[in-house]
Amino acid sequence: MKISDVVLVERENAVATVILNRPEKLNAINKAMWRQLGEVFRDLDQDQTLRCIIFRGAGDKALGPGADISEFLTMRNNSLQAKEYGGLMHGSMSAIRNCRHPVIARIQGLCVGGALELALMCDMRICGESSRFGVPINKLGLVMAYPEVEALLSLVGPSVALEILYEARVFGADEAKEKGLVNRVVSDEEVDATVAITVQNICAGAPLVNRWHKKFIYKVADNAIKSQSLTPEEKAEGFACFDTQDYQEGIRAFLAKDKPDFKGN
After folding, report:
1. Residue ranges covered by each domain of the chain
2. What phi and psi values does residue 52 have, to the nearest 5 degrees?
3. How many other CB atoms are there within 10 angstroms of residue 53's CB atom?
4. Three-state SS letters, 64-117
């Protein structure tokens, strides 16, 4: 399905693939892309038939090199313009992070600046061994704002986050794995197969449970909830799975040594 010339959505059964589609610019992110990404992920969030989303760039050269700098002089030339533009960016990032479905970033080639910030909003990141990472924005006189800093910090901690921002280096996939930026590094030829297996494993689980786990993990990680001070409603949510048909199907299949057929209800 074509959303715009710069953002594509493909659908295969219960899996959607969202594609940054400016291969001639290595998928550099412009304002139209930021706007469309938010719309796309908000729409996908409402699709109860989905079980997983893959986020990637067109081609194999880059998820993206970051923002389209050619827009800066006309669209981000002062703090007022930047605030408006940043609101659009952060709305789209939140749409990815808050999407109820598991989101997997498929990375090959460059994953720098804004592209890395988008990847940080995904639940998992799988990359090829030739991928390159970094946030060299201090060389542009730019700051990483709080929402992106929060996502970076949650993965790598304060010292490594500052190392990435201070030194502004572009580094390789093994170092990204060592720093905690990515979940898996595989050969470039195995990226798509590895992503496919990961998605298959996710889709084999009960979709409601995957959504609950995503919600619980991020609420705890964001310090939005503490287990020792749960409300009665929050405590009850931890047991709601027992009232689902998928729970009954999972127990039936386990006892019968059968493969469960989860329906998402």
Report:
1. 7-202, 206-255
2. -165, 150
3. 25
4. ECCECHHHHHHHCCCHHHHHHHHHHHHHHHHHHHCCCCCEEEEECCEEECHHHH
Instruction: Decide if domain 7-202 falls under CATH 3.40.50.1100.
Output: no
pLDDT 10s digits, 243-257 = 999 999 999 999 999
Q: Strands across the sheet with 110-112, in order? A: 62-64, 110-112, 132-134, 171-172
Instruction: Provide the CB-side half-sphere exposure for 73 (13 A, CA).
Output: 1
C-alpha–C-alpha distance, residues 93 and 37, integer Å: 8
3-state helix, strand, coil in the chain (%, to 5): 55, 15, 30
Token pair in block for residue 35: 């706007």
- Adjacency order of strands within the sheet including 52-57: 7-12, 15-20, 52-57, 103-107, 124-128, 184-186
The amino acid occupying position 240 is A
- Residue with token string 């931890």: 238
Read off the tokens for 54: 């893959």
Pairing type for strands 103-107 and 184-186 reads unpaired
Output the tens digit of pLDDT for each of the chain's 265 residues.
Answer: 444 589 999 999 999 999 999 999 999 999 999 999 999 999 999 999 999 999 999 999 999 998 888 888 898 889 999 899 999 999 999 999 999 999 999 999 999 999 999 999 999 999 999 999 999 999 999 999 998 999 999 999 999 999 999 999 999 999 999 999 999 999 999 999 999 999 999 999 999 999 999 999 998 888 766 777 788 888 898 999 999 999 999 999 999 999 999 999 9
Residues 134-146: b if buried by 16+ CB within 10 A, e if exposed: bbbbeeeebebee
The residue type of 133 is F
